[in-house]
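Entry 14. Structure prediction run on the chain below.
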Amino acid sequence: MSSNFFLQKKVQVKDIFSKFNIKKNFKVRDVKSLHLAKKTDISFFDSIKYKSDALSTKAGICITTKKLEPFLPQQTEKILVSNVLFELAKVLKIIYPNADIDYPDMSLNKPKKTKFKNVKFGNNVLIGKNVKIGKNSIIGSNSIIEHDVSLGNDCIIGSGNIIKNTMICNRVVIQDNCKIGQKGFGFIPLKDKNFKFPHIGKVIINDDVEIASSCTIDRGSIDDTVIGKNTYLDNQVHIAHNVKIGSNCMIAGQVGFAGSSKIGNNVSIGGQAGISGHLKIGNNVKIGGGSGVVKDIEDNQIIMGYPAVSLKNFLKKNKEK
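Output returned:
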């Protein structure tokens, strides 16, 4: 599977940053986060929270601010701007012109039995070009699997699902009416018209994951959205762009994850809890139902309430009432 699913233009760096006096010029390979970027990649640095990644990045060019510039390596050329995410969105639009809108997949057709010999299909299934489906998998009626999606062996996809921009591993179960791999919620607010933030990542669903009915999983904006092995999602869970969920997690119904949060392994989250964006939740954490998590949580914690606090403090506070 390719690293992205969009028409990527081959563009020279100096054509992208023509308004800046830059020294380097190379054909752009991709746009990557600081920790993944290579010497022919463009990256971005918009928060001191990512200082450690900035110090060690191998990015050829990085969009950043004057204040954050000193934390980048000397060999990385800096593009200094006032609004990093706005400039990044404009760059993404140049390189990936179709990534800000989910256009309909015009390559959809009924699956050919000669191509998918060991796969069972329900009625009215549609498959896009370059789709790969492993042996002994089952696709339920009225499901749509768009171009370049890959499914592993022994997967069960229920009815009414729409899957795009996604890589699914082995023995994954997806129940009915899920939407996976669509563009996330992201834009730059402007005075007259909001500038849509292109989403060039994908969704990766690892082995033995089960996703219950009516879940929504957005693809990554720059990085990928990832669900770890043997993690179970209940009905109506929403996972926003760039979220990383570890292995052996249990997520109850109507839980919502805001963008770019990272969830450790063996995490349990009760129904209707909310996880704010850009947080780090440690391993072996238990979060009570209805909680609102607004700050990082270390390993082996039990928390509850809004804002979420340790179970001990939550019980003490409510006892005093």
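The CA atoms of residues 112 and 189 lie 45 Å apart.
Filed with the rest of this week's runs.
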